[in-house]
Design brief:
Helix content is 71%, strand content 0%. The chain is mainly alpha-helical. The model has no long low-confidence stretch (mean pLDDT 94).
Length: 157
């Protein structure tokens, strides 16, 4: 197994471990599970999809790794859309109401960024998740690029 594949698998395991723990273990003020409870749907979505990506990596199934890379990109974009768009731009067609932010207890979580007006602020728990998600995405892109170059070189020799 190539080092890039091992790195991607490791990052996926770290992402899933962090996401699962963060969704089930109350760590106030890191998360506010007291207000929203365990996040079963989101956790299952992550475990199932990234679990399949891990299987594709283990079996060196390039088409599956490519699909997984697309999913990791969508996963990362959804996080940006949920947190950074409202933080940087305020209300938009996608985020007319920030009620979810206050009723979900996110206004009470740990933050390092300053408040801008009355907008949602990306909190520490989500910034860590977004960083891990970006690292997984970049590592998958690297696996795909490496796999394609190996296949191309094998075809030339």
């Amino acid at each position: 197994m190539h080092t890039y594949t091992k790195q991607s698998l490791t990052l996926i395991l770290i992402l899933l471990a962090y996401f699962s723990l963060d969704n089930y273990i109350p760590l106030t003020p890191w998360n506010q599970l007291e207000l929203v409870g365990p996040q079963l749907r989101g956790t299952l979505l992550a475990v199932i999809t990234f679990g399949f990506i891990a299987i594709f990596l283990l079996r060196n199934m390039l088409w599956g790794i490519c699909l997984g890379t697309i999913w990791a990109f969508v996963w990362f974009l959804l996080q940006l859309q949920q947190w950074w768009v409202p933080y940087l731009f305020g209300p938009t067609a996608l985020h007319e109401d920030f009620e979810w932010y206050f009723t979900g207890g996110y206004s009470l979580t740990y933050k390092i960024l300053p408040l801008i007006e009355n907008r949602p602020v990306p909190d520490g728990q989500h910034m860590v998740l977004q960083t891990l998600s970006l690292l997984v995405l970049l590592s998958l892109i690297r696996v795909v690029m490496y796999s394609l170059s190996v296949r191309k070189n094998k075809g030339l020799s």
